[in-house]
Each structure stands twice: as structure tokens, then as C-alpha cells.
């Protein structure tokens, strides 16, 4: 159909294209929702290698989470080591470039030997705490030498809808509400974002990383402005080969890439 796929922005040694095509896939990750109360937590599997994680909580009181404590790795995942490196790293994309953080580990098992830095994400150059926020719907990479789990916790968002900014180019976006969501319902792009076009392309695309490959989806637009001319799939993320909705899901605690041809908003509705 004349699709021209670009590649998501790559931090050093990040996963590349992989899995080219619009087919379906069965996510390989796992997670467990432990509490669905106003304050809760969830454990999400971290692959050996690269995992895309999404922020789905606020601090108690509604403020954004601190980046340093946005997620806690389990005790099997090491901190700063004898080689002066971080076996477990975080990469945060700002729309242009990546910022790098490292998992400190605990003072009893790593070489930082500073209890004030225990079990948090820190500046990898200064070996110091960071003063940054992570908002619901924000995504980030974790690169791990071993894999394990990350525990995300905080206050469950209560607003009926949450909007996130989408810029031209690549955006790492997460469902801001704890829980899995069908791909087709992963947020609604506003009317500035076009659907399937006359060249047989999707100007606005989604890429979902399963630990090994990407699966590809496109924003359908609506039947009045898209060449799909099928109101049953208006304003949904669809399979780019079959031009149809799928039963694929974005699991909770996970983020996706959205590649946008214009800027605007994506709106998520409370389940």
C-alpha cells in the first residue's frame, strides 16, 4: 500500500525496526494489578534487554511522580557496579533526544555506598538524585542486563479524561489509567490528525514493542476525511494490513510509540 515506515528514535544500542509489517502479535510481557483502590501499585515484568514502561499513577495528592522513584526495581536487579556502570538504566525521550538515568541499587550491594541514594533512579554522571517529574501517560525505556520486575505505585487518576500532548514526530505515550486496553481504544487523537490517505499511508502511526519486535498500527481517522470510508472503524487504531480493528491489547504499565504528522492532543477516557 505504499507505506513508508521510519524507525523510532534509538538511544545507544536501542532496539531498531524489527517485526516489519502490520500483523498481530501476542504480547510476551506480564504484570499484576495488586490494588484497584485510590492508592495502589502494580508489578510489571522487565525484559532482559529493552522494555517500554508507562506511567499510570500520580503521587498521593495528585501531583506528578518524582522521576527518581517512579518505579522500584526488584532486589535481583543490580545497581552501580564494580566496573562503574549501571546494569539497569532508564532512557527518557523528550521529543528530540534521550536523557539517561541509572538504577542505584542499595548501599549494601552496590559501590555507591550512600544510603541516601538507595533504590532510586539517579543522574549517571553526577551520581546524584534528579529533580524531574513523570506524569501519567508518559513513557520511558528500561534497559536491563538481567530482567526482573518494576513496581509502579501511587494514586490512581480519578479524572474522567486525561489528555497528553503529541508533537510532530515521535512520542512515547502510555495509557494513564491502570489496566490493559484494546489497541483500537488506545486514546483518541484530536481532529487535527489525519487518517488513511490517498497514497495508501497512515500519516499517524503506533508502534508497540513486545521485547523483541514492533507491531504496527495506524490511526483510521473518520469516514468523512479518510479513504477508509467505514464508520465502524472511525477514530480507532487499526491493523495496517487488514485495515480492521484487532483484539490486540496494550498491557498495563506499558508505553507505545506514536509517530505523528502534526501536533495536538490524545485523549484517554477513564475505564
Q: Which terms would index this structure?
A:
single chain, 271 residues, mainly beta, 2 domains, five-stranded antiparallel β-sheet, 21 strands, elongated, disordered N terminus
Brief summary:
With 271 residues, the chain is mostly beta strands. The protein is built from no helices and 21 strands.
Report on the structure:
It is elongated, with a radius of gyration of 19 Å. The chain has strands at residues 31-33, 39-46, 49-54, 65-66, 72-73, 88-93, 98-103, 121-123, 133-134, 139-144, 148-155, 161-166, 169-174, 181-182, 188-189, 205-209, 214-219, 237-239, 249-250, 255-260, 264-269. The two termini are 34 Å apart. It folds into 2 domains: 31-155, no CATH class; 161-269, no CATH class. A hairpin with a 4-residue loop joins strand 6 (88-93) and strand 7. With 271 residues, it is mostly beta strands. The strands form 6 sheets. Strands 3-10-6-7-8 form a 5-stranded antiparallel β-sheet, with no helix packed on it. It is built from no helices and 21 strands.
Which structural class should the secondary elements be placed in?
A: mainly beta
Task: Kindly state the number of beta strands.
Answer: 21
What count of structural domains?
2
Contiguous low-pLDDT stretches (5 residues minimum) are 1-5, 17-37
Q: Quick one: overall form? A: elongated
User: Major sheet: order of its strands?
Assistant: 3-10-6-7-8
Averaged pLDDT:
84
Strand content: 35-45%
Please report the distance between the alpha carbons of the first and last residues: 34 Å
Amino acid at each position: 500500500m505504499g507505506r513508508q515506515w521510519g524507525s523510532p528514535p534509538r538511544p545507544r544500542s536501542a532496539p531498531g525496526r524489527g517485526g516489519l509489517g502490520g500483523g498481530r502479535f501476542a504480547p510476551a510481557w506480564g504484570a499484576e494489578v495488586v490494588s484497584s483502590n485510590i492508592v495502589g501499585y502494580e508489578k510489571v515484568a522487565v525484559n532482559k534487554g529493552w522494555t517500554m514502561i508507562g506511567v499510570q499513577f500520580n503521587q498521593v495528592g495528585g501531583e506528578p511522580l518524582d522521576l527518581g522513584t517512579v518505579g522500584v526495581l526488584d532486589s535481583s536487579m543490580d545497581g552501580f557496579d564494580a566496573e562503574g556502570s549501571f546494569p539497569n538504566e532508564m532512557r527518557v525521550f523528550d521529543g528530540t533526544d534521550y536523557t539517561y538515568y541509572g538504577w542505584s541499587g542499595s548501599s549494601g550491594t552496590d559501590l555507591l555506598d550512600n544510603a541516601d541514594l538507595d533504590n532510586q533512579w539517579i543522574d549517571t554522571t553526577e551520581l546524584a538524585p534528579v529533580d524531574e517529574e513523570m506524569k501519567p501517560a508518559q513513557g520511558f525505556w528500561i534497559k536491563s542486563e538481567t530482567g526482573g520486575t518494576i513496581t509502579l505505585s501511587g494514586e490512581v487518576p480519578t479524572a474522567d479524561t486525561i489528555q497528553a500532548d503529541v508533537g510532530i514526530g515521535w512520542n512515547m505515550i502510555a495509557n494513564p489509567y491502570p489496566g490493559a486496553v484494546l489497541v483500537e481504544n488506545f486514546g483518541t487523537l484530536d481532529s487535527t490528525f489525519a487518517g488513511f490517505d490517498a497514497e495508501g499511508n497512515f500519516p499517524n502511526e503506533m508502534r508497540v514493542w513486545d521485547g523483541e519486535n514492533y507491531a504496527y498500527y495506524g490511526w483510521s481517522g473518520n469516514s468523512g476525511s479518510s479513504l477508509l470510508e467505514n464508520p465502524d472503524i472511525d477514530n480507532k487504531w487499526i491493523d495496517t494490513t487488514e485495515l480492521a480493528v484487532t483484539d490486540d491489547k496494550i498491557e498495563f504499565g506499558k508505553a507505545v510509540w506514536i509517530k505523528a504528522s502534526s501536533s495536538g492532543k490524545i485523549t484517554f477516557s477513564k475505564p
